[in-house]
Design a protein that fits this description.
The structure is a homodimer of 662-residue chains. Chain A has 27 helices and 20 strands. By secondary structure, chain A is α/β, with parallel strands linked by helices. In chain A, the strands form 5 sheets. Chain A has a 6-stranded parallel sheet with strand order 10-9-11-12-14-13, sandwiched between helices. A 5-stranded parallel sheet of chain A has the order 1-2-3-7-6, sandwiched between helices. In chain A, strands 16-18-17-19-20 form a 5-stranded mixed sheet. Chains A and B meet through helix 7, helix 8, helix 9, helix 17 and helix 18 of A and helix 7, helix 8, helix 9, helix 17 and helix 18 of B.
Chain lengths: 662, 662
Amino acid sequence: MEAATLQEMAHAIRFLAVDAILAAGEGHQGVPLGMAEIATVLAARHLRFDPLDPTWPDRDRVVVSNGHGSMLLYALLNLTGYAKISLDEVKRFRELGSHCAGHPEYDPAAGIETTTGPLGQGIANALGMAIAEAHLAARFGADLVDHRTWAFVGDGCLQEGVGQEVIQLAGHLRLGKLTFFWDDNAITDDGATRLSISEDVAERFRVAGWHVVEIDGHDLAAIDAAIVLAKADPRPSMIACRTTIARGVARLEGQRGGHSGKLFPADRDAMAATFGWTGAAFATPTAIAAAWRATAEPGRTARAAWSSRLAGADADRRALFERTMAGDLPAAWRPALQAHKARLADEGQAAFSIQTSSDVAALLYDIVPEMMVGCADLEAPTNHKRQLAAFDAADRAGRYIHCGVREHAMGSLANGLAAHGGVIPLAVTYLPFSDYERPAMRMAALMGLPVKFAFSHDSIGIGKNGPTHQPVEMLAGLRALPNMLVMRPADAVETAECWEIALDHRTGPVSLIFARQQLPMLRRDGGPDNRCRRGAYVLAEAEGGPRRVTLLSTGSEVQIALAARETLQAEGVPTAVVSMPCWELFEAQPADDRAAVLGPGTVRVAVEAAVKFGWERWIGESGGFVGMTGFGASGPADALYRHFGITAEAVVAAAWAGLASA
Amino acid sequence: MEAATLQEMAHAIRFLAVDAILAAGEGHQGVPLGMAEIATVLAARHLRFDPLDPTWPDRDRVVVSNGHGSMLLYALLNLTGYAKISLDEVKRFRELGSHCAGHPEYDPAAGIETTTGPLGQGIANALGMAIAEAHLAARFGADLVDHRTWAFVGDGCLQEGVGQEVIQLAGHLRLGKLTFFWDDNAITDDGATRLSISEDVAERFRVAGWHVVEIDGHDLAAIDAAIVLAKADPRPSMIACRTTIARGVARLEGQRGGHSGKLFPADRDAMAATFGWTGAAFATPTAIAAAWRATAEPGRTARAAWSSRLAGADADRRALFERTMAGDLPAAWRPALQAHKARLADEGQAAFSIQTSSDVAALLYDIVPEMMVGCADLEAPTNHKRQLAAFDAADRAGRYIHCGVREHAMGSLANGLAAHGGVIPLAVTYLPFSDYERPAMRMAALMGLPVKFAFSHDSIGIGKNGPTHQPVEMLAGLRALPNMLVMRPADAVETAECWEIALDHRTGPVSLIFARQQLPMLRRDGGPDNRCRRGAYVLAEAEGGPRRVTLLSTGSEVQIALAARETLQAEGVPTAVVSMPCWELFEAQPADDRAAVLGPGTVRVAVEAAVKFGWERWIGESGGFVGMTGFGASGPADALYRHFGITAEAVVAAAWAGLASA
């Protein structure tokens, strides 16, 4: 049996992609046909991977940021021997339940390092992975951490703003082990790229400090040489690959329709004739299949050597590495956090809400060295840097990433840090800017990544900066997102409890939402029982008779509910206050427990400095609501609360209105 | 009285800003102190404006994209004589109700062309304004339309992805009348810009096709010369102004604290000593004030000449121009749209939902020439281009903007088109990518701009492309946004009605949300009564007795509700179906009307292929809901509807469950 050539191996990607797309009846052939040579040379000559151990910590990471080109990835994974991407799965491309979904869906055990589809975010994830690698290499040494991050990148990824943020930031951070393959096919969905862009993309990367190599993306030797150069350069590398979209399908080659225009069996026949391909559908000729399987051998050897190094490492270092990569926290964090909470409850001091979060973070940083923090140019007002050094080109051991005014890249790179593993990412900005970060937060939720998103400046309480900086709808928007815990603590004790929940929560992201302003201490019980874990709880029970009114609130408005309760109690109305720091956790409680908290038959009034949207779930159709009905305004915070009628008096009035109509 | 110098005029900005910030007790002095010379030279030598007629259509547009520097704008407007920005207002800077809010708030009558604050969006608005100018000049001639757009730009604006999208797109479109003043002060909130960026920003603009001039931003002659060069160059111009942040306040000059560090009276005293300033607080010396007032004279003359040209123009051309700039629609649109609707109802054909929107758009394009459409590289699958030519560097008469894969810039430039006036913007993409555009949608809602946002691919109905491309929470997220009409029509007749509402709606944006898939025609009544205008209405009343069940639905699920109704009716349960294309309009109906539609005392079940969040408003705490509980999946659409249990059978079962517990 003659050894297969790289070109034949590349064609194997092409035919597997076309066969899968024909079977599915739809799909995007542009990328797998256009980037087949690139993927082949990467896998055969350079990629460090072991299909038998897909989650090997020191593997290279591969991201298909142009995620519609998913069949490029599935072909690569299938041909190199990843068990979860079997031929049966490829045959079920785009069918319900297949590991070969329309777009790659995060599953490291299958070799899928991140979910991609919304353009630009994949390369931001790759940036996060490269940061994680550089940082972990500094922590643990190159004998345990020394791998690369490779991303396949389309024109769309580089037009999206987040992609440009990535180019700036990766160049600035000089992440030399990050390499992009730009699929320079001069075509987007609308047609020629000249419809919407005129810039020299390669030059744009150079300006940002990248190493750029420009090649023919179908020239196997040129691809290899470019990768060799990329590996040798201390800057991140962009390999600009001039390609022909849908190369091989003559009818669509280089055309707009090459992207995802419908394929027919005749296209496959023509391509087979052109390339002299003898394989039947889904049948890669034996020699070529063998050559593909052989690409995994260097990685297997490297993996074995790595395992030996790990096994031979100092026991403490090994244990720390293994714990870190497994995502298990050191045991000391919980007692420390609980002691902190007990101290807070005992002292009973008012505190700036966002500061209560950074106090917890600063406490955790020393105990949980895998925490890394990104912040979008708001270090001082959010104050989550504390004792951390900056992660930058000079100091890879630093743990604080100055992300610049780039919220979207921040969120997406945090997803990349989490997907890489070994790092627990915290991303910090103001809540009004969460809209910029939201696309990344959605992906964290979809992937189930344990990213901690923290926000300050959560309401009109920020005052004079005005409505652009005052969230009113963002709480509702985040609560609507599946698989996202949204937590808005009312005081420093609740902050500590919410942070405890956040660290325990490993199946998805959390949003920790804080006020800018000072909040009084409402909770004086500092015991180990985490009341926030139930999502909502009776903070102050009705007195003097059966409960008639239930006031529901979160965050900075809980103090208003408590003040209203005082009045109502004085007026002879037994009134309870329920603090609801996390709706999602409350929703997950048994129905009876929920009912006991909400007080069936009582008049319910909610107070939150945000829109009502969603509150009907808890107050019912006839419940009262004191909050915002539109955007905020510029003025002192106390004047705004009065102006918008978010006061204890208004809550009392709403309660009486409810009692009157009950 | 000796004539004041430009330098003295610049100092007048400085002192007004510092006096206002001292009075407010807080504010951002960095920009007004750092860009005072730039603003002065612009206003005194180049800016085309008339404070006595702030909304003169042919005025230059000024955008302070670094919106925290709002006092730069207020000082400029006050000193040049805009009545709404009186000294009394400036003295109330950042107080509730002042026209001088913390960040500039859109009010053309005050000279405030757009709301800024969230960084990067201001320059995207400016891009839209420059597009509007170029297009209207092509439509109406340079005698009526010939003005420039100037933007003050901070480092943050250029780090945000949307800013980079703007750089690419503006360079591509060669908008020669767009000029940026980059406040190159090497400082952001975190400190030195080198913490987060290494690139040569000027070079980055050059790569994108911009004309760049690099100057000392405090050198009056250099600023003037640079503006002269900018005006002469056919490319958009970026004037890189090397500045000292907080120039004049010695304690903070060039420092991180210069941005918004607290000012004290002693800082003002020191600055007065440095600059030999004799004016008391808020008292600009007479000669300097007079020089500032005189800057408006050339504009007043230009405005008078322009008015003469307009008065002397052909009556039809003049009427068309005035109608267009007033935002009044030509009368013919409504009869045409209603005739279209009548025809659709008569024919009763099923149709692809997004296509029903582009059918309406294509009908309107010829009647409403002020409609311009932007699309983020999805021309073919959304099909809203139709007969429109592309707006590009070669054809300013074109009305379709290939925005590239840049949703955020698309939305923000649409806001700029609307803020400019004379253009009715429509921005089109898929609903799953609305998160990328959302920051712009929020600003449209906050400003009350009549932007039409249209979306296709609104649910799991898109099928095999999987959960990244399947909105589940986005309807709720948009419904939570104040001042945004969210409309999801159920068939082509509702599409026509929703479009009618959209064109009538001038006090805020609308979101028109369409499915990718084909929807049957449900409505056969094509009369002029626009039933969608009530937000929700009884599409099919219960028969055979008093209504016992009310099924509520929107968009592609209304057909499922109708099928469930058939079953329930057959089972002897009088059941109504309510179509709810627009919650916001329904909420605005009289309570009795709402109750009549919702059917008090009936069992209510909602069906929508999205999360339940927010539906409790209409179904109550105990109502049934058939929809999504999490993210979607990759698979054929019909399989997904079955998999997630969004079926007529499930709706029937939920109704029976409700009847059993009632």
